[in-house]
Amino acid sequence: MESIPFIQWCLDNLNYFTIFILMVIESSFVPFPSEVVIPPAAYLAASRGDLNILLIILVGTLGAICGAFINYYLAVWLGRPIIYRFAESKLGALFLLDKDKVVKSELFFVKHGAVATFIGRLVPGIRQLISIPAGLSKMPILPFILYTALGAGIWNTVLALLGWFLERTVPYDELNEVVSKYSHEIGYGILTVVLIALTYIIFKAYKRPKVDIIPDTKETE
Questions:
Q1: pLDDT-derived band at 91, boundaries 50, 70, 90
Q2: Does residue 67 carry a pLDDT above 70?
Q3: Mean pLDDT, all residues of the chain
Q4: φ, ψ for residue 77 (rounded to 5)?
Q5: 192 with 200: CB under 8 angstroms?
Q6: What share of the chain is helix, strand, coil (3-state, %, to 5)?
């Protein structure tokens, strides 16, 4: 998808506006990786100083939320039969979308529940499409925004830090190759840490002793 002139122009002219637009595209059903947006922007922030890494993360996350809304509301308005029909169509194939990818994202959502909107943002192959089953299930909008923002924010932070620190050791024209090589491992590493943390929190909550509150029956004078 980088060969599309508009997308290529945005990549060649990275600023806060183009970062936002590219991340909207990345989080919709268009197969466009965030790895070619956030790390280069952070790389330029480190080398030239005309961008701020915190604003890159913020703008990128806002774009991801807006793109997720596209998938969410398309799923709400169109419904499961039309979504699957589109995935199997020639137009769906043009966007590298197919039935198996939609099924995979929906099964992931069913297995993990609403929190899948957060976890799914960290899973390669699921990240862009996890908003579709959220829309199909009509997930409440506020939790959807919260989980999407958390997942996208964590992922964008990791990518930004990766681009920032690689500026010291990797030439700019080799950055995408290096980031692509390790992005899946990084994503699964983050997911593992998140799952361990969630398991620990749930375990501690479950093991917490219950305190019986005995009402004071003593009459007050």
A1: low
A2: yes
A3: 79
A4: -80, -40
A5: no
A6: 75, 0, 25
62 touches 20 (CB < 8 A): yes
Tokens describing residue 188: 């699964």
Of 10, 39, 28, which Cα lies nearest the Cα of 182?
39
Encode 144-175: b = buried (16+ Cβ within 10 Å), e = exposed.
beebbbbbbbbbbbbbbebbbebbeebeeeeb
Per-residue pLDDT of 117-173, as tens digits, reads 888 787 777 777 888 888 888 888 999 999 999 989 988 998 999 889 888 888 888
CA–CA separation, 153 vs 118, rounded Å?
10
Residues 6+ apart with CB under 8 A from 97: 29, 31, 86, 87
Structure tokens at 25: 């595209």
